[in-house]
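Q: I have 234 residues here and want to know how they pack in 3D. Can you give me a structure?
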Amino acid sequence: MIDFWTVNRYGTAYKMPDYIRFVDKEVPSRYDSNGMVITTDITKEQLLGLAEEQLATQAHVKFTFPPDITVPMLEDYELSELEIYELTTPMFAVNEAITVQFVDAATVPDFLQLSYDEALPFGEKYAKEREAWLCRKLQQDFVAVIAYYQNEAVGAVELIVQENTVELDQFFVREAFQRQGIGSTIQAFIEAHFLYHTIFLVADASDTPREMYQRQGYDYCATFYELTKQPPSL
């Protein structure tokens, strides 16, 4: 069964008595790479102290709370509710007009441009950091999938492949091409290539895609929460 601790977390982990600190100096503005997972119930005052610790080395603050940990409410912080879903009974409608493939040397430029454009709304600094990070990862054992419609790149997803699991990360379809079965076609491709892996993803509880995932054969596993505070300039 997939649970909170199955979810991948980027960055180097430093385990402390009350939390796990994640730091990635290569992508300091990436929230998923730089923050803290709180592992015990703590007070609001303690949390504010940990926020100051984060701000000593990064511009944002991020706390992640496992399902069994109480979330203290802090002013000026955004609370996000996230849900984990595991694929159990695949029911993907495939659009035959869509070509899906693993990212390779020939498709890297398209993948990088897609990813840059998707990251740009979060700031040029982040988009450039992420592009440089992807370039490094693509030289290693990085796995990603890209989709084309009429020879135009329209969607992509990064795969975090472990021994028994595959996590779908940074999954998106360009806005102009949504609701055409592209996301479903991408997932059908992944499911066909990882028949002996458990496929799962994390969805924002406030987004409509959650209902779509349920229709496609995903089962709910768990809910967890995040508290984030953006830099003052954002």
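Q: Anything worth noting?
A: The CA atoms of residues 77 and 92 lie 37 Å apart. The chain has a mean pLDDT of 94.
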